[in-house]
Amino acid sequence: MALVLTVNPGSSSLQVHLVDAQADEVLDSSAVEQHAHSAEARRALEGLLERVQDQHIAGVGYRLVHGGQKVLSPVTVDDSTLDAARAAESLAPLHVPPVLDLVDTLRARLPRLPHVLCPDTAFHAELPEVARTYALPANWRLRYGIRRYGFHGLSYSRALRRTAQLLGRPEDDLQLLLTHLGGGCSVCAVRSGRSVQTSMGFTPLEGVPMTTRSGSVDPGLLLWLQREAGLGIDDIAEALNRRSGLLGLSEGLSADTRELVQAAENGDPRAELAMNVFAHGVRRELAAEATSLDRVDAVVFTGEIGWDQPELREAVCSGLGVLSISGGLSGNRDDDGPVSPPSAAVPVLVVRPREELEIARSTMTALHS
Fold first, then answer.
1. 120 is catalytic
2. Is 0.70 surpassed by the pTM of this model?
3. Terminus of the chain with fewer CB atoms < 10 Å: N or C?
């Protein structure tokens, strides 16, 4: 066995798993829907550490949402690595500080083990120049490292690998549209095993609407809110990250698609608008990403919402006839695989989000490189 302890803090959650990287299997886990700093999250972490203390663990792997300019692949933690990762804290303030705090905690708790940072941005590190470059002044791009970084890379790497297995084709022979839909949401076009376009950019705020994040908005709107409405940077940042998306669209009703689908079916216009705008945003981005491909071999849904919300998958695919993608999808599955009819011109697949398995895989790769 090759045992890896994987640590995946979200903006308001913590998942810790003991993974056999060789068997691609989870042996133990703890997960809480509370911030990583919360007492509940710390108790869950301590509980798992106590249960696995006699195991021969090869290393500890962490999901690092944003690696910034310097952490572009999985790397073993040392002081210089941490300094490079801290430089990206302001680019993903909801995600990077919690994971670095956990690194400090677990390095002190498990000092003899190697610790590895696994950046979500690694999957997109070699985006084509035309896809990664913003139309901004050159001195800004050079001085501040402004480029499209892309996110959800661990999820996309797993989805690509599973899709290749399910279709019985090599990864480098596939051209895919992937979408990770969860608390954060994005779309990615993969060509010959590489990310060639993705909806999230310099930060995890760009792209499609999300549960509480706005996704892309007119930058002129933000300038207007500062200049004419008198809103400060902190107010705008808080609203864009925590009070927008599905929550804002539904006028505070809910950020949970399960609740919104039910409310929409019961005739609530706020929920109906939220789900319609959300599905439209994902459809629009999938269609845009398709321009980076020669063909579409499959559409793949992953992430908690992508895996577990058939109504959303149907709403997205039923509006993509221009790409020969159609609705009529089946409901939820017990395992990864197709949800489209066998006769579909473009198959639609779902892949369960298993970032912990990809973190373990990346950790072992870094330890043996």
1. yes
2. yes
3. C
Local confidence pLDDT in tens for the 369 residues of the chain = 799 999 999 777 899 999 999 999 999 999 998 888 888 988 999 999 999 988 899 999 999 999 998 899 999 999 999 999 999 898 888 889 999 999 999 999 999 999 999 999 999 999 999 999 999 999 999 999 999 999 999 999 999 999 999 999 999 999 999 999 999 999 999 999 999 999 999 999 999 999 999 999 999 999 999 999 999 999 999 999 999 999 999 999 999 999 999 999 999 999 999 999 999 999 999 999 999 999 999 999 999 999 999 999 999 999 999 999 999 999 999 999 999 999 999 999 999 999 999 999 999 999 998
How far, in Å, CA of 313 to CA of 339, rounded?
Answer: 9
Concatenating the DSSP letter of every residue in 171-233 gives GGG-EEEEEEESSSEEEEEEETTEEEEES--SSTTSSS--SS---S--HHHHHHHHHTS---H
Query: Out of 20, 120, 234, 268, which one is annotated catalytic?
Result: 120
